[in-house]
């Protein structure tokens, strides 16, 4: 998104402005925008609220932000806390903080290193997660790479290449002892996983369906349906397996 001859908004104390078109919106205090906003750059390190839709080239959130509408952005980085009432559409979204999206998330690339709660569907070309997340609808992506860093919940997962592994830091001997003592092992829970190449660790699923499937350690699967080959760890439980 190119800059235009429109004005900037800078709030470093406490202020309220109307919606409209701007070059840069910068909030380092407490700011509220009444109405839809379209800007090149949206930056907030304070407390901000947008009472409408937000369309921007880049969004950087390191404070606390609530957007009471839809978000359309090229690049979005969240290291603070954000709450979006509507849908989010982005080329790239990186979550290092905490994010709650009440609608759908659609992006080329999704990276979660913090925590995320998506109430509807998440669709991406590439989905990477190393934190904890909850997706109440479908997770659909070409490439799915999950490093379990806490409890993760998804209604259904679909993709070409799906890889779910325990995060390296969580796979240490010390972490395993702590997990056993306090029953705090991070895991992925879902009803259905469907893909071409699938590798799973610490996963609870009713059905896993694919071509080449590896059920690694710590899994509890009700039914595995495979068309190519299957490998099952002795440390995992599979109720039933079918070659289709």
Automatic annotation (TrEMBL):
<comment type="similarity">
    <text>Belongs to the bactofilin family.</text>
</comment>
<protein>
    <recommendedName>
        <fullName>Cell shape determination protein CcmA</fullName>
    </recommendedName>
</protein>
<dbReference type="InterPro" id="IPR007607">
    <property type="entry name" value="BacA/B"/>
</dbReference>
């Amino acid at each position: 998104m190119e800059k235009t001859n429109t004005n900037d908004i800078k709030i470093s104390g406490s202020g309220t402005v109307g919606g409209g078109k701007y070059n840069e919106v910068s909030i380092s205090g407490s700011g509220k925008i009444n109405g839809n906003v379209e800007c090149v750059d949206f930056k907030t390190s304070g407390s901000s609220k947008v009472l409408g839709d937000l369309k921007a080239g880049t969004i950087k959130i390191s404070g606390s932000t609530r957007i009471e509408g839809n978000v359309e952005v090229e690049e979005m980085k969240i290291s603070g806390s954000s709450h979006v009432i509507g849908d989010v559409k982005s080329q790239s979204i990186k979550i290092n903080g905490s994010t709650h999206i009440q609608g759908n998330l659609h992006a080329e690339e999704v990276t979660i290193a913090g925590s995320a709660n998506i109430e509807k569907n998440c669709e991406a070309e590439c989905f990477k997660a190393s934190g904890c997340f909850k997706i109440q609808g479908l997770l659909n992506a070409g490439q799915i790479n999950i490093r379990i860093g806490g409890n993760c919940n998804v209604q259904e997962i679909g993709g070409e290449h799906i890889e779910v592994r325990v995060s390296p830091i969580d796979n240490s001997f010390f972490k395993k002892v702590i997990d056993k003592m306090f029953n705090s092992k991070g895991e992925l829970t879902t009803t259905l996983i469907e893909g071409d190449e699938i590798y799973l660790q610490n996963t609870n699923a009713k059905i896993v369906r694919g071509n080449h499937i590896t059920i690694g350690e710590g899994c509890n699967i009700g039914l595995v349906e495979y068309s190519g080959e299957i490998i099952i760890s002795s440390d995992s439980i599979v109720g039933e397996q079918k070659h289709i």
